[in-house]
Amino acid sequence: MIIVIISIHQFQDNIKSENLKLIQYNNYQESKLYNQTPYVVIGSYSDEFQFFYSIIIFLQIKLFQYLMVLTLVSYKICPYVVRVASALFYKNIPFDIKYIDLNDRPEWFNKISPLEKVPILIVDENKVLFESNVILDYVDAISPPSIQPIDHFERALARAKQEFAGEIQSVLSAFKYAKTPEKIDELKADLKWYFEKLEPWLQSKYLLGDQIGLADFSYAPLFTQIKAMSPLLKYDAYEGFPKTKQYGIELLSLEAVQKALVPNFEELIIEKIAQLGGYLQK
To answer: What is the C-alpha separation between 82 and 257, in angstroms, rounded?
Structure first.
């Protein structure tokens, strides 16, 4: 029997058959890769015909992915867009990006975005997805192998931790609008509270282990914003949280995250705080 196991790293660049390594085991458990997210099991086959047929089907999926037309509608400093763009770049999925001004939303955008928020992902020019975590699920689904846990509970827990990232994002966004030093101090305490919860989760390089997972892309924008605002915050947000600090360093070092940011991202964050009349600019 042939068990087909393919590492995600073999598909991070365009498919190259010479880099495709297949491993033969008598059973799946013997492979010692059971339930590990960096691998996908395409199937088990009793003969070579079934084996090569599975490869053809897999390559058809990849071809379908590259033939799709994806357009990500974005605001240049939106953290939720950074989530999606990072995942698209990481999975090497071709897409176009269209920027809009949220202070002057075009009518076409309001018609197709139910919440009139970014990001939205336009698929094949006539279908629209909204909400960043939902779009992340779609991105993962159309680009096998998945980078989500196989186990149902672990996958649900990972999704819950993605929602937790959204709570931290609300605090970081509030820093930009804060008008008094008292509000800034309150937000610092809030951020510390969330980091106290996050720190024990970080027992490995990434949120769920040594290999990056889909949930990590929900956290990446948090660290891009803290880095951008650090000259104005004038305190070490990571004091007492060495694992959270290192986690941020790992995510910021990813090429996919860097590519998801516009060249003047940090300048635009500072400009936005000034436009809002935030206390951080005083």
So the answer is: 7
